[in-house]
Design brief:
heterotrimer; A alpha/beta (66); B mainly alpha (46); C alpha/beta (889); A: 66 residues; three-stranded parallel β-sheet; 3 strands; flat; C: 889 residues; Rossmann fold; five-stranded parallel β-sheet; 22% strand; binds flavin-adenine dinucleotide; binds iron/sulfur cluster
């Protein structure tokens, strides 16, 4: 179990969290490599269907960030 | 439907808050990790 | 030595200047390269796979033929090694503020970890010394105030406390705290609340503590006691200086400089030098912060453009348009380019493995890797590949779409592909840079991201962008000096202007002001400007007029104006808000009950009218910060310190024997205004400091006007009898809500408009096509209002000059067949893009105006009938990315 790495689908708003993620890169801040980012134009675009689909398709977690 | 708490996360991070972004990534990752693999929802392979 | 990191660390002889450098390219330091200095090594030429090393590059001289010149040579930070009593040169833990910035920065030598230089110990006590190399003619020759150092010191102290925790003791030693910028006073108040100490004292010596790396500081505190404190680190808040090579350049160009070596300008022409056709911006115009430098630069662009407007577009080349290849109906043929970004990506992610993996994905026809995908030659090569392989979809796995998507989209357009047939995988900013220690998982993540991008791009369709004509007329709201200047600049560049003024005269607040800080008479210059505007046939002035309503959007606004009840419709492409502000009417210090108590503007009026009574006065006082910097108005009005000092000097001119007192909290004569402060002290004006919780008291004792004040320095009560008391009242914004509503622009807690970006976008709003200048932005003196008036015009012209704009392609679309007419989208859209169709077969169903839609997708998620689609971020496309994750690598 200790080797197991979760996969987390992240829906990030292009104008907010996606920008913060880019900036974290510019600052070379280090964080765990488990998130897979889907860029969305705004959290308004988010639908519960996406979160459910991700979990159904085997994601271990879903993170929506505006 | 019962998604386990801790599988689904929401947050608000402005484009200038890189540090906060990293903090949330770490928190989300460790909480999901603590739950173990997601078995409940996965489509049965078949 | 790494110059960018202020010499705190070493850099190699071949280097990138700093991580955000544009272009992000290496260069050779000729002074330290052993090949160039001694003919040995040459290693870099051998290892560079791109063959980019050329040791033969030499300085080249080019001759350019130009119509105007803009000088922006900047400043040099004062070098404190000349002041030996600070021990800067001899002690590692005495650093300049610029060095401290690098220590705090995440990209600096300590990766943002707060550590002192000598032993990397985390400091527990840090002191800042203000005015190092500024406001000082004894130890250096810089009599001016550098304007920005108070604010940066407070910022550094606050950030240091954030990094190191609240136990860190930060002390700022100052003469006056000058936080006269927008929102700065609030920041100062917050820093005090967070425990940053402010000590009103100038320090004259610093001694190393024997046997440690600490430093001992001696000073006299506000109560007059001699105090000794030991600090771990000392930061010198060094000021601005115009470097000698810039002074030489100015001399060569034959432009006049001030005594402080800044370019000499007039308040009414603030970016023009003494030589016609040469303009300036930034700190060559005087010490200033980023927003003001940005304002100046737009103003200089406007001035430089105005004299050239007849030649505009005479030397431009028109870009060739490549016809778009139709792709609808064809199966996807995807090209995947994986970028190494030098070693930025390849140093962590196994780029070759990612490339080979991409080749195994469905519909991928071509894969390749690039050293630097964004370089011009790679762009050309990519275009060739797209054409020769007949690719119809492209994925670039590289830095981030936020900065580079437009560039790659241009390449697609150049290859005849619609720019929306493209997707980026972010494998640098969100992968290699943040998972440095985990190359394996980073490579796996890159593969996942590429697979997601490939799945999405396969479903992308060509999208159309609507082209909009931009109406070539402008509306300027407010006929004060800022609005007048904007109108004049716009007309000067050939645009028609509607200038709307609510009162019955042009001129605004400037009508009340006697002289500028530079000593120029305001009324003469203002009248000249008004005459120019009134006689300009491109400017239509509407007096006693207000806007009743506004609709439309960038390029196509419509407003109804009302002049004395008579309405008129106008159409225009851009709008400039210059609605100004006014003086507070005080209700303290006996203002309403004693006619010897005036406001600053009332005193100016007497000067303008040459009132003979003024010279008969024996004793006069000024009270500063009346209504400013108080809990319910926590901002500095910026102009009043200079204004009162100017007026004190004018009174001295009328009667040199007059006793004059200025009761102040901090004197904020920023920049070269400091000379006036010095002159006033020399001429005997008495400055008495008071604190906000112990304000002066004004009483009428048997008809005598008496002021009681506790001298903050002497801690003694003082009684002053005067014949005239002037109150330096706050500058108050008008009620801006109506205008804010018309253009959907924000207003802050102080009632002032909020610009697009506090530093980089001071003269425009976040709403496209709406601009801002003058007091409507923040209190400022005339020269700054004039500069911003030009700046707003300049920003507006960049839009007008395009003549057409494109809407975005990634917008929402409603399938009327599925729409149930519930109206949720109409009520939810923040941009009012959806509406009901009013005629035809689908009457009553919703539709979306592609011009207003910003593509946020709110309506898509809210539509219960599933009738709305967001092009480019379709359900299918997002699901494709989610499904793509399932496949294990
Ligand atoms: C108390 C005080 C002291 C000052 N002292 C100095 C000084 O010593 N030195 C110095 O250089 N500067 C000083 N200034 C600043 C100087 O006055 C300004 O920088 C300059 O005059 C501002 O010009 P403006 O066009 O931005 O605003 P304003 O002069 O306020 O002009 C705005 C105009 O817009 C009009 N308006 C407002 N709302 C609307 C609307 N909805 N529709 C149509 N029209 C509208 C107003 O009637 C007004 O004519 C002082 C300002 C004040 C208030
Ligand atoms: S008073 Fe002026 S020179 Fe002195 S530190 Fe403050 S801003 Fe700089
Ligand atoms: S008098 Fe005016 S400029 Fe001086 S500190 Fe007070 S508010 Fe600021």
């Amino acid at each position: 179990m200790s080797d197991w790495e979760p996969k987390i689908v992240s829906f990030l708003c292009n104008w907010c969290s996606y920008g913060a993620a880019d900036l974290a890169g510019v600052g070379r801040m280090q964080y765990p490599p488990n998130i897979r980012v889907v860029r969305i134009p705004c959290t308004g675009r988010m639908s519960p269907k996406f979160a459910l689909a991700a979990l159904r398709e085997g994601a271990d977690g879903v993170w929506v960030s505006g | 439907m019962g998604i386990e708490p801790g599988r689904l996360h929401f947050s608000w991070v402005s484009s200038a808050e890189a540090t906060k972004f990293v903090d949330v990534v770490k928190k989300v990752t460790s909480e999901v990790k603590a739950l173990g693999p997601n078995k409940q929802f996965v489509k049965k392979k078949g | 030595m790494d110059v960018y990191n202020s010499g705190l660390v070493q850099r190699k002889a071949i280097y990138v200047e700093y991580a955000q450098a544009v272009p992000l390219k290496y260069c050779i330091d000729p002074e330290n390269c052993i090949y160039l200095t001694r003919g040995k090594c040459g290693n870099c030429a051998k290892v560079c796979p791109a063959g980019a090393i050329d040791y033969e590059q030499k300085e080249k001289e080019l001759t350019l033929n130009v119509g105007s010149i803009v000088l922006a040579p900047g400043f040099k930070s004062f070098d404190p090694s000349k002041l030996d009593f600070y021990n800067y040169a001899s002690h590692k833990n005495v650093v300049t503020a610029l060095e401290f910035e690098r220590i705090l920065s995440a990209s600096g030598p300590t990766m943002g970890h707060l550590a002192r230089v000598s032993d990397k110990k985390e400091p527990k006590k840090i002191a800042w010394f203000q005015c190092v190399g500024s406001r000082d003619v004894n130890k250096c020759d810089n009599a001016y105030c550098s304007s920005v150092c108070c604010m940066y010191a407070i910022k550094e102290a606050a950030i240091a406390k954030e990094h190191a925790g609240n136990d860190l003791d930060c002390a700022i030693f100052y003469m006056d705290i000058r936080t006269h910028g927008k929102d700065f006073e609030r920041y100062y108040d917050n820093a005090k609340d967070k425990g940053v100490r402010f000590v009103n004292s100038r320090i004259h010596s610093v001694l190393p503590v024997f046997g440690t790396d600490d430093l001992e500081v001696r000073y006299v505190d506000e109560a007059g006691k001699l105090i000794t404190e030991v600090f771990d680190m000392i930061v010198l808040s060094t000021g601005f200086e115009t470097p000698p090579e810039v002074v030489k350049l100015a001399n060569d160009l034959d432009i006049d400089l001030t005594v402080g070596n800044f370019a000499k300008t007039s308040a009414f022409d603030p970016v023009a030098t003494s030589r016609e056709g040469i303009y300036i911006c930034g700190s060559i115009a005087g010490p200033r912060d980023i927003p003001q430098s940005v304002v100046d630069s737009s103003a200089a662009a406007s001035d430089a453009g105005e004299i050239l407007s007849s030649a505009r577009n005479s030397l431009t080349t028109v870009k060739e348009v490549v016809p778009e290849t139709p792709v609808v109906g064809d199966p996807p043929k995807i090209g995947v380019f994986v970028c190494k970004c030098g070693i930025n990506i390849a140093g962590v992610v196994d780029v070759e493995a990612v490339r080979d993996y991409a080749a195994s994905l469905p519909y991928v026809e071509y894969v390749g890797d690039n050293l630097y995908s964004c370089s011009q030659d790679t762009q050309d090569a990519m275009a060739d590949i797209i054409k020769s392989k007949n690719l119809n979809r492209v994925v670039v796995a590289a830095c981030t779409p936020k900065t580079h998507e437009p560039l790659f989209q241009e390449t697609l357009i150049g290859s005849g592909l619609n720019k929306y047939l493209f997707e980026m995988a972010n494998i640098r900013n969100q992968d290699s840079w943040v998972h440095k220690n985990n190359p394996e998982l980073a490579t796996q993540k890159a593969m996942d991201l590429v697979r997601m991008a490939v799945s999405k791009v396969a479903l992308m369709e060509p999208l159309e962008e609507a082209e909009l004509e931009i109406n070539q007329e402008a509306l300027v709201i407010g006929g004060g000096i800022a609005g007048l200047t904007s109108s004049q600049s716009l007309a000067g560049q050939g645009y028609n202007v509607h200038l709307v003024e609510k009162s019955d005269v042009l001129g605004g607040q400037a009508l009340n002001i006697y002289k500028t800080a530079s000593g120029e008479y305001v009324q003469e210059n203002l009248t000249a400007l008004i005459n120019k505007v009134e006689s300009n046939e491109k400017i239509k002035v509407y007096l006693e007029t207000e806007i009743v309503s506004t609709d439309g959007f960038v390029g196509n606004f419509r407003s109804i104006l009302s002049t004395g009840g008579e309405e008129k419709n106008i159409e225009y492409g851009v709008s400039i808000v210059a609605t100004g502000a006014s003086a507070l009417e005080p209700d303290e210090y006996n203002y309403k009950s004693d006619e010897r108590v005036l406001t600053s503007l009332e005193l100016d009026r007497r000067f303008i009218n040459n009132d003979p009574e003024l010279s008969k006065i024996n004793s006069a006082a000024f009270i500063q910060c009346v209504g400013s910097r108080e809990p319910d108005r926590p901002y500095c009005s910026r102009v009043c310190c200079t204004h009162s000092i100017e007026n004190a000097l004018e009174l001295k001119k009328l009667n040199p024997e007059m006793n004059i007192y200025i009761l102040y909290r901090d004197i904020r004569t920023f920049g070269e205004r400091e000379y006036l402060y010095k002159q006033a002290r020399q001429e005997g004006v008495i400055f008495i400091k008071y604190s906000v919780d112990n304000k002066p008291e004004v009483i009428n004792r048997d008809g005598r006007l008496i002021i009681n004040i506790v001298d903050h320095v002497l801690r003694l009560p003082v009684e002053i009898e005067v014949d005239l008391l002037t109150l330096a009242t706050a500058i108050l914004p008008p009620n801006n809500k109506k205008i804010a509503g018309f253009y959907k622009v924000p207003v802050n807690d102080d009632g002032m408009f909020v610009e697009k970006h506090a530093k980089l976008g001071p003269s425009e709003f976040a709403t496209d096509g709406v601009f801002l200048c003058g007091l409507a932005h923040y209190p400022k003196p005339i020269e700054e209002s004039v500069a911003q008036g030009k700046a707003a015009a300049s920003r507006a012209i960049t839009l007008l000059a395009k003549k057409k704009t494109n809407t975005i392609g990634t917008i929402a679309k409603i399938f009327s067949m599925n729409c149930s007419s519930c109206g949720v989208c109409i009520s939810i859209c923040p941009y009012s893009a959806p509406s009901y169709i009013e005629e035809g077969p689908f009457t009553g169903k919703a539709q979306i105006n592609p011009v207003l839609c910003k593509g946020c997708g709110l309506c898509v998620a809210s539509c219960r009938s599933g009738a709305i689609n967001l092009k480019g971020f379709d359900n299918d496309q997002i699901f494709a990315q989610i499904y793509a994750l399932k496949e294990a690598v």
